[in-house]
Amino acid sequence: MRTILLSGAIVAVSINCLALSGPPTAWAELSSACETKTATEYTMVIQSPCSPTIVKANQTLNPSLLNIAITDTNATVHPAIIPVQVQAPGIVNVEIWTHNKMATLLVNDGTGTFRGQLDLSSEPNGPIVMAINAWNTPPGDNSYTVNLAAMMTLFVIGGEDAVIPTPVAAQEMNLQWSDEFNSLSAIPCKPGTGTWPKCTRPTASDGFTWYENKPNGGDFGDAAFEHTDSHYNPYTIKNGFLRIRSQYDPNYADPNGYGRHWYSGLLASAFPDGTTNAPGLANGYYEARILVPNAATSDKSKSGGTWPAFWMMDLHDFRKRATGSLEVDITEEYGHDPYYTQSGIVAYRTATGGGWIYHAHPGPDLTCDFHRHGLLITDTAVTYYFDDQPIGSAARPALQNNPPVDWFLMLDLAMGSGWPVNPPPAGYFDMWIDYVKYYVP
């Protein structure tokens, strides 16, 4: 058994895989456009897939964030067996992990360069997290004094899409509305009126699905929410997936005057006037498939402070403030604890029914794979589903005098929520969304 640090948690794993008999044949294909750096003793450089980051932090002495940089070009791979090459002088053992388990053990060529193959031939299209763990002792020897660790996200193209079955809670329902993110239908301003914030606010009649701000004008967290019309655009669509990137920039000028040096993104399915192009969001089942970033270390004061969320509010917040308003957080996650998620209700003003739906650890490290987060709303209850299983429920909240509730959805990668916010070696954190769907009875 070997005890390792992965995603900020100490876990024990069994080293039971065989070393490869030799390197793959593609070492000459370490891209000439890939400008790697040279590792010195007890540092690490991932040369294939190529990252420009030198991993320096010894996790046994200096717990540090794991995310390292990789360009979109270098992250793009095919569903095949790909070469992996890591330079790590002084290190004895290097392992590659995917899906929260060891995928391959690299072989030292005798010069401090470790090589092996990573089998991605069965991987579906889309992002996949690759973790690199290294020690200065052989497999199974826990007397190590050096532990280097890093994480990067690769992106598989040219294969099959993941097959996602109809949700259990929606078996007897019809799909009413969805966004598969084959493109991004989002806007911060009415077309032709300028760039945010010096523009006219858009409405649903402009024909877009998402508004790039919280519709009521609220701002929160330690990252400013930026926009597609900005030099700091945080959104990327890649082969049917939406990426929201929270970027650290010490030279960034916070447009809201709060002095923040992070910028990120928030999308809402309603516009400032309360109109929406996702109508009829009421009773039914809501689901998003999401990959959240890892922002954990064993020293929580050094955490990254990520705060991703999939949530909803009622349109009465814009239209009839006298009735109160409601917020339902389908899932909120905090980077300092990659095993934790929470779902809850906030009742504002004269609305009733606030409280937890679920707040605990559903099992896996949530940052290693995509997970499905769902909410079933009926006349009497709201139920949170994690990976298609109901794991928490609460009474349905209500507005004053119990009028019908129309909801709008939000997706964001916020930062902070009271936790320390530190940049990783990459300088950024990424949240990936595969889809958002709404089913009706």
Please give a structural write-up.
By secondary structure, this protein is an all-beta fold. It has two domains: 2-156, Immunoglobulins (Immunoglobulin-like), CATH 2.60.40.10; 168-440, Jelly Rolls (Sandwich), CATH 2.60.120.200. It is built from two helices and 30 strands. The protein has helices at residues 72-75, 316-319; strands at residues 2-6, 9-13, 44-48, 54-55, 76-77, 81-87, 93-98, 101-105, 107-108, 113-119, 126-135, 147-156, 174-179, 186-187, 210-211, 224-225, 235-238, 241-248, 262-264, 266-268, 284-291, 306-314, 325-332, 341-348, 355-360, 371-377, 381-386, 389-395, 407-415, 428-440. The strands form six sheets. Strands 13, 16, 17, 18, 19, 21, 26, 27, 28 and 30 form a ten-stranded mixed sheet that branches. The protein has a six-stranded antiparallel sheet with strand order 20-29-22-23-24-25. Strand 23 and strand 24 (341-348) form a beta hairpin.
Compute the average pLDDT: 90
Shape: globular
Which class do the helix and strand fractions yield? mainly beta
Give the proportion of residues in helices: under 10%
- CATH structural class of the largest domain: Mainly Beta
The number of helical elements comes to 2
Number of strands: 30
* CATH fold-level assignment of the largest domain: Jelly Rolls
CATH architecture of the largest domain: Sandwich
The rounded distance between the terminal residues' Cα atoms is 50 Å
* Contiguous runs where pLDDT drops below 50 for at least 5 residues: 1-33
Strand-residue proportion? 35-45%
- Return the domain count: 2
Q: What summary fits the major beta sheet? A: 10 strands, mixed
Q: Cα-atom Rg, whole angstroms?
A: 23 Å
